Amino acid sequence: xxxxxxxxxxxxxxxxxxxxxxxxxxxxxxxxxxxxxxxxxxxxxxxxxxxxxxxxxxxxxxxxxxxxxxxxxxxxxxxxxxxxxxxxxxxxxxxxxxxxxxxxxxxxxxxxxxxxxxxxxxxxxxxxxxxxxxxxxxxxxxxxxxxxxxxxxxxxxxxxxxxxxxxxxxxxxxxxxxxxxxxxxxxxxxxxxxxxxxxxxxxxxxxxxxxxxxxxxxxxxxxxxxxxxxxxxxxxxxxxx
Length: 241
Prior knowledge:
The chain has eleven helices and no strands. By secondary structure, the chain is mainly α.
């Protein structure tokens, strides 16, 4: 949870006393969405309050309802804006590994299934933090979260197919954010969904147990994922299971 909230700033007060250009409201909305995305990733859905988000955005609570109906509406906006599941440092490391010709899946598994990720949820993936809490939320939040998972599975499947040398997968599509993806060859979305579920589950469990047990969970999951990849053929893009 966030500690004490700061006092309103001069800009906060003036926001309600002076006219602004038409673009001001859009920029303010972006500030709120960006602040909320960071909080949701770090603290989950239930533990974040509107007051905390608005304070982080440098605004007062009164301005929130000019943009959103409630916290669930804000969460949906975060997802629709392309809320990144992975932090910039993690994405940077993955891009560096790929440029150096390293195996992408190995690099991803080592980063995702690591002690650093377990101990620093704000620097990692949003799925382990959000999963349990969104399941207790409303239909709109659940639908938005479903979209996040679907996007993540699609992008992971694309990366797996690209790594296997499947034709047509060389289009530069980012791991996160909104982007149209090519159709995945048979088997890749299923593999990606299974891999994602395994990794997210491993992180959730590892954060709930002692250090030794967590290390065992992470090591076993990394091993299973990499062994499964080694058994899968590749150049044709067809999976045999």
